[in-house]
## 1
Amino acid sequence: MSAPARAVIALGSNLGDRHEHLRAARAAIGSLPDTRLLAATRVEETPPLGGLDQPPYLNQMVLVATRLPPHDLLHALQSIETANGRERTGHWSSRTLDLDIVRYDDVALATADLTLPHPGVATRDFWQRELAELAPHDH
């Protein structure tokens, strides 16, 4: 059997008990089938993207080893979001939990529902800091 893929997942929350939403997401991600949590960054508070008037976000990244294919991982993450009260009301809207696959090994993919690596990597300075924090664990 091939080695598991290493995936980086960004977690964000700006509604409700933000720390609890991130904690619940970490626990749920770590209990996905064929998935193991390898490392997590510190939690960082950031202003909302898109210049919208909304509460600040708590952000964090986790590194996982997974045998779930990218789209299966995406659907599992969307289920975790829904279980934590996520309502999809529009792009850049406030949310209890936002989970994005930032990177999945060296896979390059562009489909209607998933682009890898995530197109926001180049423009989100807090993601750059979080990726740097995960780098020593990603080998």
## 2
Amino acid sequence: MTPQPKLARTRAIVLAAGLGTRMKSRLPKVLHPICGRPLIDYVLDAAELATGARPLVVWSPPVEAVRTAVAARADTARQAQPRGTGDALAAALAELQTAPGAPAGELLVLSGDVPLVEADLLEALLAAHRASSAAVSLISVITADPGRLGRIVRDEDDEIERIVEAKDATEDELEIEEINSGLYAFDAAWVAARIADLRPSPVTGEIYITDFVALARADGRSIGSIQVGDDGTLDGINDRAQLAEATFAMQARINERHLLAGVTMLDPTTAHVDASVVLAADVTLEPNVILRGSTRIAEGTLIGSGSQVFDTTIGRDCRILASVLESSEVEDAVQIGPFAHLRPGSSIGTGAKLGNYAEVKNSRLEAGVQQHHMSYIGDAQVGARTNIGAGTITANYDGKRKKRTTIGPDAFIGVDTMLIAPVELGAGARTGAGAVVNRDVPAGKLAVGVPARLRDPRPEPDEPPDQRSPA
């Protein structure tokens, strides 16, 4: 008989119906972010890699946002009331019975709040489960601090006899240092036949998935297990302190991956890089850098201390110094900062330079533009090689609508110029210091005064008289 393919044989179930009250948050626990992603996303990654199939997530009405958040990458099952892990598994089984296609031969059950779990460990659990033909297999952890987690109770032959939840444990059982990780593999047909035999705890009223261990023993079935050390990888997230610890560990993983791929981090402990960020080789990150979202940075670029970059693409050989870039595009060999700000919708051309306290919003600066300090360019198109003097402002809002400014190539905007949109300056146009420009300036003309008047620019000292503009 030909074995079933991995996709048809194994199905991962992720339990995410709990309220997470210790988080003290309106946001469901498993949706709290770690390095830019909801923590459940990391669990789904591992589950999908280990099984090759689309996971199924169990949710409950108080955390319905979970269903919406995972819908694109997981099937879902509704647990009407969060009455424990066994009841959650029953909801998942009911959903699987109506799913199209061949039924799963085995189930991999995970908690949605264990973001550091890795696919390799889950694959090892499944391998041990198959090798032992067990009804139930699990991963246990040896720890000096068992806390509130379920204890593994073994018999005189060192076989797993049962799992007792901390709330139900005796004083002697609470001294046990082998705990349940909450990761299981099940014979799918057996667990479906036995799910109705789970009974509520007399102490808490919850239905525990751990009771399957005793049921398997009663049926004469073996219990498979893998024992691991307490390295934090299988810790669940129950409060903000544990969330911070998991975030630190995940960030270390992400940074190590970038370092091994050729990125330089002068202090990796202060480099905050989202899981979704893409960095090329020879990118350098100075201390205290934050990179978020869909940010992509090409080779040879330096991101200086104190910079924050959100959803922005940055080209090759750029220097970004102590600046904030949001939802923008930066081409090659650009210099920005220190203390500059690209607001959403900005596009900076090759070789441009933005100095101290330069701000750009929803504007395109073509190649070679120089925008000097204490200036604001908003809703504008600035031509190549134009010089933006210090203190220049595009007055783009009239109290009702945003209006655009267009500046041609090779223009020279004098210090402290105010451009009242809508206004257009032609190629090579110039403005004098302090000019308030409220009408178009033709190519090659000079605008001076308040409000600005048009005149021909004075010739440069080395400009031959016959090349001067006519009066």
## 3
Amino acid sequence: MDDADHVNDPANGIGGSDWKRQVAAHWLDASSRHGMPVDISEFAEKVAPKSTYPANIAYEAAKLQNPELADRYLRRLREAAATESRSIHLPEVQADIAEELGLDRIRFFADLAGSARQAFADDQRFCHASGAHGFPTFLIRAGGRERLLRGYNRFPAFAAVFDSLAGEPLEKNRLTISEDAVLDFIGKYSSAATREVVEVFGVSDSEAEMILRQLVSKGQIEAHPAGTGTLYRALQSGEYCDPSTGACM
């Protein structure tokens, strides 16, 4: 989105001068379907950017510096906007998040003002050439074949594409849920929502919540209220959260 003031998306009821309120309502509707937490309390006043391009360019800057950390950076950008009311279109906020993940701040700013812009332009051209004209669009590749999956889809739709590209049904990796397994999962991504634990381990909401609450009660993870839900965060090395006070040291 180059300029939200020029967006016209009648299918989702978005367009015109009231686009911030409309997008906030769209976020809430999406949250009710995908189950991930969102907080729109400050969306119109603080969070809503006129353009998504700056955040996209910031992702390219992270990728130029450290491709392995780039996807974690993208996740943190999304979390920061959706659950922390942070203005991820601002360079200082983008750099703060980059530094939080261990990226070099000075290098990040240099790439942000230079090579990352060209990398984003190249990505735009690739998307247009691939036939991606709407959001979201997923390009899935396997065995020299590829398929576009357009719009909002649940995991079974992705699994069907994986099977189709493979030419046969793929064996699903079944994970057994436990406190240690969930703790490792949250540690890998630094945070997780209940819905992610449910989908990864194939359990019910109540079972996932029980494990997460147990980890919180033992001071092994933090629970952060995030608008429509809760985000569970991994602790820093050596950090401990007192279950009785909620204070982390």
